[in-house]
Amino acid sequence: MSSTGAPEEAYTATPFLPDGRAPSLPALRRAAAHCRGCPLHRDATRTVFGRGTPHSRLMLVGEQPGDQEDRQGEPFVGPAGKLLDRALADAGLDPADAYVTNAVKHFKFTRAEPRKRRIHRAPTLREMSACAPWLAAELAVVSPELIVVLGATAGKALLGSSFRVGEVRGTVLEREVHGRPERLVPTVHPSSVLRSDDRAQAYQGLVADLEVAARTLSS
After folding, report:
1. How sure is the predictor about 2, in pLDDT bands with cuts at 50, 70 and 90?
2. CA 62, CA 154: separation in Å to the nearest integer?
């Protein structure tokens, strides 16, 4: 209920998913471009859907698109994405072999003044829940052997609001996600490495977590 006592508008992407029991990634991408399942689409430039080959063994799930992703229409193409690619390679994982996506498909931001830089804002649980059908559909198509969870927001979207990345990072979890048994390795979001006071140490921590993912895939 809203503060006025009126029912709140339901947020969900479900009506925008394509028809059919097993849509392809291209079909999902085309349908997601027209998603109006929550208000975030109003200010974003475009929907930023996942990227990668179908049936990748590894899926990486982040929070939401950033400024560069919103402009280019692809996930993880900004500074955090470049750092992530380097960390994957240093951990022995080929970035080209992974499917990368976000829990939320539209950029949420604020602007202190007109024409100023757009400042990231974290999505709410309600917005993550609205976007969950897209992530569930991606998981169903790709069917990865392992999911790397990038940061707290992605963790909450996949594993619930009680998720704390600091408590489980670098470990292998076995959980049911959207009705599917999954293995997951949580770690920090690469943007947190860029914000860290000790960037070298934070980067090595990210690589160490990704090395757990690499060993899990090779075992």
Report:
1. very low
2. 5
| Helix (H) or strand (E) run with residue 203 in it | helix 199-218
C-alpha closest to that of 184 among 155, 218, 153: 155
Compute φ and ψ for 215, nearest 5 degrees. Answer: -65, -35
Could you tell me the end-to-end alpha-carbon distance of the chain, in angstroms, rounded to an integer?
49
How high is the mean pLDDT of the chain?
A: 93
Q: Is the pLDDT of residue 215 over 50?
A: yes
Inter-residue contact 156 to 128 (CB < 8 Å): yes
- For the chain, the structural domain boundaries read 23-218
**CB–CB of 203/189 below 8 Å?**
no
Q: Residue 148, SS3?
A: strand
Alpha-helix runs per DSSP H in 42-185: 67-72, 79-90, 125-142, 152-159, 165-168
Over residues 181-198, the pLDDT tens digits come to 999 999 999 999 999 999
The pTM is what? 0.92
Half-sphere exposure of 77 (CA within 13 A, CB side): 15
Number of H helices, E strands in the chain: 8, 7
User: Quick check: 135 pLDDT over 60?
Assistant: yes
CATH level 2 (architecture), domain 23-218: 3-Layer(aba) Sandwich (3.40)
Q: What is the DSSP letter of 117?
A: P
